[in-house]
Amino acid sequence: MIGRPKLVLASASPRRLSLVNQIGIEPDALRAADLDETPKRGELPRALANRLARAKAEAALASLRMDEELRGAFILAADTVVAVGRRILPKAEMLDEAAQCLRLLSGRNHRVHTAICLVTPKEAFRQRLIETRVRFKRLSDQDIESYLASGEWRGKAGGYAVQGIAGSFVIKIVGSYTNVVGLPLYETASLLGGEGYPIHFGWLNAV
After folding, report:
1. Does the pTM of the predicted model rise above 0.85?
2. H helix runs in the chain, sequence order
3. Residue 79 annotated among the catalytic residues of the structure
4. I need a labelling partner for 33 at 20 to 30 A (CA). Which of 71, 81, 137, 178 fits?
């Protein structure tokens, strides 16, 4: 597109792509990093989210330096971590992992931390961390079994997707809803706009 700088989304998440599309931004490319996302010993949820968002941004920047078309683009990376207290919940890939997450979240408050990391065309790094508190209802065995059967939990931090069926489990959200989905839109737009990215460019044809 002529008239705006390029932007690369350092993510393979369809949810994050859908969220940036929601605010009228169409990334020029996707550059997902294949990282080991295992928390370090004693690492706190906020620190993990910050570290992984930065690592994803750095990996995308390294790949763009070898790409003439995309060199100098803005890079947007993010990582979402779900935690109960200091305990970090996995991005559930196995049925028993998801079941364990849901039992832990049942009837309790938990926190969703998303770190966003923006790399500017001059290769400056800008980072923000957003936290949202979420409370689940007490889940019955049928709730858990039926949700596991849906398969919606697969690959999701904390073993659930708030924008799907699991939205019916949520009693209360304090903070950004889009943060729980995977990308806090207010902070993302503020960060991009503050660094000179024309966030309104795509709005003219958005409807």
Report:
1. yes
2. 14-22, 45-64, 95-105, 141-150, 177-181, 185-194
3. yes
4. 178
Question: Cα(60)–Cα(33) distance, rounded to whole angstroms?
Answer: 7
Domain ranges for the chain, please list them: 7-205
DSSP sequence for 26-38:
--SEE-------P
Given the candidates 2.40.30.10, 3.40.640.10, 3.90.950.10, 3.90.226.10, the CATH classification of the domain at 7-205 is 3.90.950.10
For 142-166, write each residue's pLDDT tens digit.
999 999 999 999 999 999 999 999 9
- State the number of CA atoms in the 13 A half-sphere of 80 facing the CB: 27
Catalytic residue among 67, 79, 96, 141: 79
Judge whether 33 and 59 are in contact, CB under 8 Å: yes
91 close to 37: Cβ distance less than 8 angstroms? yes
